[in-house]
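Q: How do we represent a protein-ligand complex in a form that can be generated cell by cell?
A: Start from the inputs.
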Amino acid sequence: MRLTEHDGKRLLALAGIRVPDGGWARDPDGVRRLAGSLRGAVAVKLQDPAPSRLKRGWVRRCIDARAAGEAASAILREGGSPSLGFRVERWREPEREFYAAVVSDPAARAPVLLFGAQGGRGVEEGAGVLRRVLSIRRGPAPEDLRACVAAADLSGRAADSLGKLLSSLWSVYRSHGAVLVEVNPLGLCGGDLVALDARVELDPDAREGAARFEPEVPADEDPLERVAGEIDRHDHRGVAHFLRVDWPSAARAGRTPIGLHCVGTGVSLTCMDELARHGFLPINFADTSGNPTASKICRVVRVIFAQESMAGYFFMTCVSSQQLAHTARGIAKAFLEMFPGSSGRPDRPCLFCFRGAWDEEAQGILRAHGVVGANVRVLGRESSERAAADAFAELFRGRTAAPFPPAHPLQEADLHEDRPGIVRFDVLSGGVISIDTEACVRCTSYACLRACRSPSDEPVLAVEGGRARLRITPEEARRGGCVECLACVLDCRLEGRDAIRVRLPLSAEGA
Ligand code: SF4
Ligand code: SF4
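Then emit the C-alpha cells for the protein with iron/sulfur cluster bound:
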C-alpha cells in the first residue's frame, strides 16, 4: 500500500523526523484556509502518487493563501484528480539536498540503506548513491551510519542529526512493515535536516504485527477491488483475489473484453494465453482457490459482473482438490440473483470448466438450477485450457460486437420481513439467512435437511413440527457452524417452497 506524501510525512514525523509544518486539504477552499494558517509562502502539492506530478506542475510554490487557493483550482482544471486532495506546507528553501531511503531489495533478500549526497529526481538510479545491505534484525550498524555521514560531508549538529534520521527511517521501515521509506529530497534547511518529500510503501501482507497507522487521506482504490478485498478479509475460508487489469487503449483495440474467473493462479495465466489467441482481453484477474465457501464464491462472481463492458464470462479450474460442488453453488446463487427474469440464465456468453473433486456434481448443480442455456457451455475434466478457450470462442460466433450487456450493480438480496414464523441467523462472513417457516408447513420434501447433511458433523438445520429451525445455537452458526454452502437455499427453491433467503454483504463497509 503506497501512502500519499502527506501520510508518509505524518509517519516520519511520528518517528521524530522533521517535516515542514502543514496539513491536508480536500479542495481549493480548504487549501486557502490551511495556507492562511501557515502564513508566508507555502507549497501546494496534489496528493497524486504519480512520479510525473512535478513535471505536470502539480506541485507549486505560492506566496500567500489566495495564490494557494488559485493554484489548487488551476491544478484541478488542468486534469489533476480531485479525489486525493492537497498537502499544503510551509515552503522551505534548502541549502543542500540529500537522498535517503531504506528499501526491501529482492535480489539481496534483505533491507538496504541508500544514501546520496545529492537529492532530486532520478538520483536513486545514479552511481553516486551509497548502498549498505542491512541485517533485518539489527538495522543500520554504526559503521553504516558513519559511511553516510562521511559521504554527506557534514559535521557537528548536522552530522549527528543525519545519523539519528537514518536510524529513524529504519525504525519506520521495521515497525510499520514497510517495503520502502524514502526521503527525496532531504533538505538541509538552516542547519536542520527536513524531509521535503516522502514516499512510503507498506506491505499489506505485513499488517499482522506491524504498528497501527491510519492514513488520513482516503486511499484511491478501485471500488470493486476494495469490496473484493473486504470479502477476502472478513472470511478466512479460502481466498478471493480480484484485480482489475488496466490495459492501455492500444492493447484494447479490436479485442473482446471478458471477465475471467479461475480456481488456481497458474491456470489463470494459461487461460489468458489461450484466450488471447481468439482476440479476448480479460479485464480482471480473479482467483478463488483454497476451498472457499459458496457464499464467498457467490460474492466474487457478483463483483466480476459489476464491471462495465464485459462481453462474456470465462470460468475454469485447475485440476483441483477444492470442493467444486460448493464452488458451483456459489456461482448458481449469483446467477439466480443477477438474472431473475430468466431464472439464472445469463445475458452473455459464459463458459464453465470444472476439473477435480466433485466436478461432475458441480456441472449437475449448474444444470439443475437453470444456469445452462443457449449462451452457456459447461465442460469437465477432459478439457484442456485450449479446448475451453476454443469452446468459449464458439459461443461468440455470429454475434455482433458491442454494445455490451449492462453491468450488474452490487445489490444485496432481500431477506424476509421480520414477522412471526421467520427464523433468522447470522453467518461468519457477515451474511444473514432467513427461513419463512410458514411456507415449510406446506412442504413435503424437506430438501433443506438433505442439503444440510454432512458426513462428519451434525446438520445445522432440523425440521420440527413441519417447520425448519436452527439445530445449533445462533452463536455456533455465527462462529462458522453454518459453512455457508448455500445448498439449503438452492434446494429449497428447487424442491421445497422457496422459503430460504440469504443476504451476503457486498459493500466494503458491510463485508
Ligand atoms: S425445504 Fe424449504 S420449505 Fe421445506 S422444510 Fe426446508 S426450509 Fe421449509
Ligand atoms: S444451513 Fe446448512 S445447508 Fe444451509 S448454508 Fe448453512 S451449512 Fe449450508
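The first strand starts at residue 22 and ends at 25. The chain has 16 helices and 22 strands.
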